[in-house]
UniProtKB/TrEMBL annotation:
Top-level taxon of the source organism: Eukaryota
PANTHER family for this protein: P450, PUTATIVE (EUROFUNG)-RELATED
Family label: Belongs to the cytochrome P450 family.
Gene Ontology molecular function terms on file: heme binding; iron ion binding; oxidoreductase activity, acting on paired donors, with incorporation or reduction of molecular oxygen, reduced flavin or flavoprotein as one donor, and incorporation of one atom of oxygen
Protein's name in the database: Cytochrome P450 52A12
Keyword Membrane: yes
Record key words, sorted: Heme, Iron, Membrane, Metal-binding, Monooxygenase, Oxidoreductase, Transmembrane, Transmembrane helix
Lineage: Eukaryota, Fungi, Dikarya, Ascomycota, Pezizomycotina
Length: 506
């Protein structure tokens, strides 16, 4: 009994402290809002004010019916260019304003982190560049950046080798072929060669998907582990209760496969150190993994960085090619124009400089990334109270307060199709618009600011090379997709029904 007053005193002190911090926070925020001229955002997607379950239900329905992006666009048209949303306990601000995107990714870069997304990625990706924030990310970027120099990304001989293998699977008798499936094989084969100095050579294994071959097993495990990231994201905090032995096994296979190459690279570094001491080291072409091993001997670190880049670089470039050829196959005029431009090479395989000089090719790629951006939506998490320049007030033209703990989602897909920015034909695939178009932050396929895609040049070189070679080999391409383009949205965006075409040899 004698303790009761003490308990009351402690409880009183605790609640006073909570009240005091709440009031101080409230006053500080009121001041911050006033100083920045912020006004409330009036657009609101969710009707359930506590958990936003109605919004969650709509999102699940859209995802099941492959209409996430088109519905998101309609939502922006209905609610305004910036609006509020809520997913269970997560407050969200969604925006398609280029000025806001510039603020999140560049001007106020330090006010944001990746937030919860890391939890879903960590089992496969560890703490590599794609999954790190702050100092850790900065170290990764510093470590990897030199490997994306021109000499490294312009290995056209490797692209040609993989292209020749792909060519074997392209029917020359007009039979229908799904280019998308082959592009996915092409990019994993070239990315694994670029990164590990060992290609999965999946194009050699077409029709042998059940082979007990470690490259085939890795390819399947990587696909599974990557899809499982999406599942983990959807389950969120509940994922820890999910039984997922197959997912864990897939991750184990991926890690073990890559660790073998890491061991080789570390052995290479030891030999190099030895040769340097003896003064007999020679300059030769080093592969990505060997370069990284020259800078760190931390085996897990090297493995994590490489698997991050494989994930960032594989499906993205394959999706770009698939989406672009889906459009071009329906437009014989565009195919013919592309062929005319490529004919200036006189039938030779292109050099790096020649690839860069093909303007119409560049316009075709740009335009595909505009209407089908491979990373169509993205998020950042406010780690302190901050402000967006637009979205507040009835017209959305005033600054908007972003409380710490808010997820800000931005949509390149919606931005890229805004009619006020791209004209009334914004939904059409029209490479010619790039003759005069010079967009800023309203065009963002590779992200912007300090975290801009590191592999942009590699991706564009690879996609350009494959396009030129295809156009050289085939004089006509005909679409065999009876349906319009339908989204398949996983970590990247490609066509649900693939890219089915018939080809006429040149
Ligand atoms: C068409 C092809 C590609 C597109 C559209 C694309 C797009 C993007 C985007 C939007 C991001 C930002 C992700 C974020 O911060 O949330 C990104 C980051 C990144 N990309 Fe790409 N990417 C492509 C190809 C590649 C390739 C081929 C590689 C490597 C070989 C690569 C390596 C990376 C890396 C390492 C990052 C992380 C950069 C950082 O956080 O500092 N990407 N990419």
């Amino acid at each position: 009994m004698a303790q009761s007053p003490l308990i009351f005193i402690l409880a009183g002190a605790f609640f006073s402290y909570i009240l005091y911090t709440r009031i101080t926070l409230y006053l500080a925020r009121r001041r911050f809002i006033k100083e920045n001229g912020c006004q409330p955002c009036l657009g609101r997607f969710h009707k359930d004010p506590i958990l936003g379950l109605d919004a969650l239900k709509t999102m699940n329905y859209n995802s099941k019916h492959h209409i996430v992006l088109q519905e998101n666009k309609k939502r922006f048209e209905r609610l305004g260019r910036t609006f509020h949303n809520r997913m269970v306990t997560m407050p969200i601000i969604a925006t398609c304003e280029p000025e806001n995107v510039k603020t999140i990714l560049s001007l106020k870069f330090k006010d944001y982190s990746f937030g919860n997304r890391q939890k879903a990625f960590t089992p496969l990706l560890g703490h590599g560049i794609f999954n790190a924030d702050g100092e850790r990310w900065s170290n990764s970027r510093h470590l990897l950046r030199p490997n994306f120099a021109r000499d490294q990304v312009a290995d056209l001989e490797a692209f040609e080798r993989h292209f020749k293998l792909m060519l074997k699977h392209l029917p020359r008798d007009g039979k229908t072929v799904d280019l998308q499936k082959l592009f996915f094989r092409f990019t994993i084969d070239s990315a694994t060669e670029f990164l590990f100095n060992h290609s999965t050579n999946s194009l050699r294994m077409v029709g042998q998907e059940d082979a007990n071959n470690e490259d085939v097993i890795f390819g399947k495990a990587f696909n599974f582990a990557q899809d499982d990231i999406g599942t983990r994201m959807r389950f969120g905090a509940l994922d820890r209760f999910r039984k997922n032995e197959k997912g864990q096994e897939a991750i184990r296979i991926c890690h073990e496969y890559i660790e073998k190459f890491v061991d080789d690279a570390l052995r290479f570094r030891k030999e190099l150190d030895h040769e340097k001491k003896a003064g007999s080291a020679e300059d030769e072409k080093y592969y990505f993994i060997q370069e990284v091993a020259k800078q760190t001997t931390d085996k897990k670190r090297i493995r994590d960085e490489l698997i991050n880049i494989l994930l960032a670089g594989r499906d993205t470039t394959a999706s770009l090619l698939s989406n672009m050829f889906f459009e071009i196959a329906r437009r014989p005029d565009i195919y013919a124009k592309l062929r005319d431009e490529v004919a200036t090479l006189g039938g030779r395989t292109p050099t790096y400089e020649e690839l860069r000089s093909l303007k119409y090719l560049k316009h075709c790629l740009n335009e595909s990334l505009r209407i089908h951006p491979v990373v169509p939506g993205n998020t950042r998490f406010a780690i302190r109270d901050t402000v967006l320049p637009l979205g507040g007030g009835p017209d959305g033209k005033h600054p908007l307060f972003v409380p710490k703990g808010t997820t800000v989602g931005y949509s390149p897909y919606v931005m890229h199709r805004r009619k006020d920015l791209y004209g009334p034909d914004a939904d059409e695939y029209k490479p010619e618009r790039w003759e005069t178009l010079r967009p800023g932050w309203e065009y963002l396929p590779f992200n912007g600011g300090p975290r801009i895609c590191l592999g942009q040049q590699y991706a564009l070189t690879e996609a350009s090379y494959v396009t030129v070679r295809l156009v050289q080999e085939f004089k006509e391409m005909e679409s065999r997709d009876p349906e319009p383009w339908i989204e398949s949205l996983t970590l990247t965006l490609c066509s649900l029904n693939g890219t089915k075409v018939g080809l006429t040899p040149a």
